Automatic annotation (TrEMBL):
Catalytic reaction equation(s): a 2'-deoxyribonucleoside 5'-diphosphate + ATP = a 2'-deoxyribonucleoside 5'-triphosphate + ADP; a ribonucleoside 5'-diphosphate + ATP = a ribonucleoside 5'-triphosphate + ADP
Similarity comment text for this entry: Belongs to the NDK family.
GO biological process: one example: GTP biosynthetic process
Cited InterPro entries: NDK-like_dom, NDK-like_dom_sf, Nucleoside_diP_kinase, Nucleoside_diP_kinase_AS
PROSITE patterns (UniProt xref): NDPK, NDPK_LIKE
Gene3D superfamilies (alphabetical): Nucleoside diphosphate kinase-like domain
Active site per the UniProt annotation: H117 (pros-phosphohistidine intermediate)
UniProt cofactor(s): Mg(2+)
Stored Pfam families: NDK (PF00334)
Record key words, sorted: ATP-binding, Cytoplasm, Kinase, Magnesium, Metal-binding, Nucleotide metabolism, Nucleotide-binding, Phosphoprotein, Transferase
Record note on quaternary structure: Homotetramer.
Organism: Octadecabacter arcticus 238
Enzymatic class: transferase
Name assigned to this protein: Nucleoside diphosphate kinase
Length: 140
């Protein structure tokens, strides 16, 4: 597998509890290099756009309100097989199902307040990176 880039969000439940550094340390320990990082606060329209694929799901309102409730940290992670590696480090969506040592097992509060987002495929990774960062901001 070649070197890939993936997009990550440290979510409001984690920034609020000062877990930004602890989560970044997990990425770095897994061999993922943080090549871009910024702290922002989403508007409701941006949160609805970002999670548009889930717009028909019953939890959409709760999810988008949560995502705008506090600042988030958006990052680009680079490394060997970065998309799958990041999903592995994140753990399962529901922290109750997440493996030991994963971010969600250690830090997530619930299936909704689950501390991190990570792209699920090369196409979504490219789209999500381009939505939040210009090429000049990616310093590999
Ligand atoms: P993931 O973030 O692991 O890629 P997903 O894409 O299926 O998971 O869902 C996006 C987010 O939506 C997820 O991180 C938290 C929220 N979510 C998913 N399923 C949920 C549910 N059953 N109840 C509440 N929130 C949910
Ligand atoms: Mg997803």
């Amino acid at each position: 597998m070649a070197i890939q880039r993936t997009f990550s969000i440290i979510k409001p439940d984690a920034t609020k509890r000062n877990l930004t550094g602890a989560i970044a340390a997990k990425f770095e320990a897994a061999g993922l290099r943080i090549i871009a990082s910024k702290r922002i606060q989403l508007s409701l329209a941006q949160a609805q756009d970002f999670y548009g694929v889930h717009s028909e799901r019953p939890f959409f309102g709760e999810l988008t309100e949560f995502m705008i409730s506090e600042p988030i940290v958006v990052q680009v992670l680079e490394g060997e097989d970065a998309i799958a590696k990041n999903r592995e480090v994140m753990g399962a969506t529901n922290p109750a199902d997440a493996a030991d040592g994963t971010i969600r097992k250690e830090f997530a509060l619930s299936i909704g307040e689950n501390s991190v987002h990570g792209s699920d495929a090369p196409e979504t990774a490219a789209e999500e990176i381009a939505y939040f960062f210009s090429g000049l901001e990616l310093v590999g």
